[in-house]
Amino acid sequence: MNEQRIREIMARAIVLARNGGPAVYPNPMVGAVVFDEEGTILAEGWHQRYGGDHAEIVALKNLGRSATGLSMAVTLEPCNHFGKTPPCSHAIAAAGIKKVYVAASEPTEKACGGCAYLSSRGIPTEFVPGFEKELSEINRFFYKTAREKRPWITLKMALTMDGFIAPPTGDPFPISGKQSQGEAHRLRAEHMAIAVGAGTVNRDDPILTTRLVEGKSPQPVIFSANLSVEPNRRVFDRSPIIFTTESASKRTDVFKSRGCRIEQLSSPTDLAGAIAILWDKYRINSLLVEGGARLYRSFIEQQLADEVVHFIAPFLLGEGISLAGGDSSSHPMPPFRLHAIERFDDDVKVVWRPPNYSNRISSP
Ligand code: AOF
Ligand code: ZN
């Protein structure tokens, strides 16, 4: 098969994969294409929602006839395990597919081995290079959990030209414009969970939904070491997970009766422990941290930020609460690398990632 045509078909499979979006979380977005010897596409599929058929199965079902002698391109090595659904590797072999092209290997221990299985059944597999960067980007949350057993962490903050996030009183104050607020809600829809500190809950009474865009609102997560949050705040109607060092008491009972899940932290600053719980217990693959300054700073200091997003608004406050809250010169941080810049009306969205960021995927 002509190499150029295989690349076109794989590019198509990635377009299909993207259709999955957050509905597949914490699974990866995967696309699959069935084609004949001339390179004509006969059926397409993608993983549509968590727990549903995998991309390969959807494509085979869409084909609606025998796949004997046909080839398949799939963006991720077919799974080889009985999970929510049976192994795609078995289904592909049973369908009579004669060759499988893949663009990335399966990184989890539970699902890997699909290519080896297919080879053992006499079905050759071929790695199609050149798509690693795009796939590691669209599935960055999935790779983060597969490799590090913790969610991807994005820190988001709106600030003035002179680097303040609020006036000196700390009162809520609109900083970013309408368009960047829409973009901030799109970020919320992209993440499975959203975190704020106790100060932000008490002062701003945020509801943390995606009301400005389409998409599911993320699971709220609240960090409140001594449980100083006020139980009458609106976010408590959304069954938040609360991380605290308070052990079971009258106060924890109040929050439990409001539907909150209380999680014990060994120390107020044990963010690594908290995010490990978010993955291990709740299968949360991504956490958007929205403030305040102290929580933001703790994630930076503990080098747990995978991405930092700033919306910089075109005015000066002169004085106020600074972004990192305090004297950051006493805690020199490794510099971040600029990842992307985008304009939203008169605001600028700047995205940084840590210099050691490498989410590159490997070939099978
Ligand atoms: C594939 N094709 O379309 C996807 C795969 O719990 P399950 O059974 O749905 O399995 C989920 C795991 O399977 C997931 O963690 C990832 O390793 C793989 N995803 N594999 O062959 C697909 N979504
Ligand atoms: Zn599968």
List keywords for this structure.
16 strands, 364 residues, 28% helix, alpha/beta, 11 helices, binds zinc ion, binds ligand AOF, Cytidine Deaminase, domain 2, nine-stranded mixed sheet, Dihydrofolate Reductase, subunit A
Describe the structure in your own words.
The chain is an alpha/beta fold. The chain has 2 domains: 3-138, Cytidine Deaminase, domain 2, CATH 3.40.140; 143-353, Dihydrofolate Reductase, subunit A. 28% of the residues lie in helices and 22% in strands. The strands form 3 sheets. It has a 9-stranded mixed sheet with strand order 11-10-9-8-12-6-13-16-15, with helices on both faces. Zinc ion is lined by residues 54, 78-79, 88. Ligand AOF binds at residues 27-28, 30, 47, 54-56, 76, 78-79, 83-85, 88, 106, 108, 111.
Structural class, judged by helices and strands?
A: alpha/beta
* CATH classification class of the largest domain: Alpha Beta
Shape: elongated
Report helical residue fraction: 25-40%
Biggest β-sheet description? 9 strands, mixed
Low-confidence stretches: none
Question: What gyration radius follows from the Cα positions, in whole Å?
Answer: 23 Å
H/E topology pattern? HEEHEHEHEHHEEHEHEEHEHEHEEEE
Instruction: Predict the CATH topology of the largest domain.
Output: Dihydrofolate Reductase, subunit A
Strand order of the largest sheet: 11-10-9-8-12-6-13-16-15
Ends apart, CA distance between termini? 20 Å
- Mean of pLDDT: 93
Task: Write down the domain tally.
Answer: 2
> CATH homologous superfamily of the largest domain - what is it?
Dihydrofolate Reductase, subunit A
| Strand count | 16
CATH architecture of the largest domain: 3-Layer(aba) Sandwich
What's the assembly state of these chains?
A: single chain
The hetero compounds bound to this protein are: ligand AOF, zinc ion
